[in-house]
Fold:
Amino acid sequence: MRKLQASFVSIVFLLVSTYAYSSEIGNKMKVAGEFQVKLQPMDSYAKGIEGINLGRMSIDKTFSGVLEATSKGEMLSAMTPTKGSAGYVAIEQVIGSLSGKEGSFVLQHFGTMNRGQNNLVLEVVPDSGSGELTGLSGKMLIKVENGKHLYEFEYELSEK
Structure:
C-alpha cells in the first residue's frame, strides 16, 4: 500500500510540475507552470550593520506553460542574525504571452520569513500591462518543489 501511495504521489507531482493548466473562475483565470530563475549578486548601495546582511541581485526568469515569457528585474534583501528570518522586495517586468495574448506586465514581490514561516505576495502592478495584456491584474504564487520552481497565476484581464 505504501509503495502504491508513493508511486501515486510521484505521478501526481510529475503531472503538476510538468503540465501547465488553466481554469476559469468567474471572470478570473488561473494558470500554472514552471519557471527557471537565475539570480546574480550586484553591488549594493547600502551596507548592513549589527549582524544585518543587505543584498541586491538581478533576476532573470524564463516561464513555461500557459505563461510563455521572460522577465528581468532586481531584488533587495535583508538577512538577520536570527536563523530563518529575512525579507525581500523585488520588481520584475514580464514580457511574452499569457494564454495566447502578447504583451508585458510588471510583478511586485514582497516577502518575509519569520523564523522559518514564509509570507510571500506577488502582485501585478496596476496599469503595468501593455499590448494585449493591457488591463491585467492578478496575483502569483511561487513555490519550489524538489528543486523545481513552479508558479500559479490567478489573473483577470479587463477591457479598458
